[in-house]
Design a protein that fits this description.
about 80% helix, single chain, 6 helices, mainly alpha
Length: about 170
């Protein structure tokens, strides 16, 4: 895939990777626990980078609805709570159990709903109203923050518990 710095494309790429990881977490043939670990890191790093670097910048554009951006942040919290519940089931060694499947589907629903809404409202708005150069600047900032989060092990059970508790 061609290297891009456009924040819209970077966010969309993360969304597609999350979908791939959902498929792995559902597969009896995959290493579901490893897929969950990768997913947890990606989800938390992605959301933290959006909230730190992307959402505040997009709120400055008149044609991008502030309420949609704030709603996106609320949906991140819902996703974090659903992730925490699945991580706790995984930690208990119950990967693949009925409870695992239930918690996974709740997570899939929360994250898929958010990604769909974000793509239709916030990202389309950014694509239409934010200059390419500015989207690339935001992409650089998004990647830097996302990288910092990943390096810090942001998707650990302890960290997700702290995020949900705060």
């Amino acid at each position: 895939m061609a290297e891009t710095r456009d924040v819209v494309e970077l966010i969309l790429r993360d969304h597609r990777r999350m979908e791939d990881l959902f498929r792995l977490m559902r597969s009896v043939e995959a290493d579901r626990a490893a897929a969950l670990r990768e997913f947890a890191d990606l989800l938390i790093a992605h959301a933290r980078a959006e909230e730190a670097e992307v959402y505040p910048a997009l709120k400055r554009y008149k044609k991008i609805d502030d309420e949609e951006v704030e709603h996106g942040e609320e949906e991140h919290e819902e996703g974090n709570k659903a992730l925490l519940e699945l991580l706790e089931v995984g930690e208990a060694g119950e990967v693949g159990s009925e409870e695992w499947d239930e918690k996974l589907e709740a997570l899939v629903e929360a994250v898929t709903h958010h990604a769909d809404e974000e793509e239709r409202t916030i990202l389309n708005g950014a694509r239409e109203n934010v200059a390419t150069e500015r989207r690339e600047e935001l992409g650089e900032a998004f990647l830097a923050e996302r990288g910092r989060q990943l390096k810090a092990g942001c998707g650990t059970l302890e960290n997700v518990r702290a995020l949900v508790g705060s």
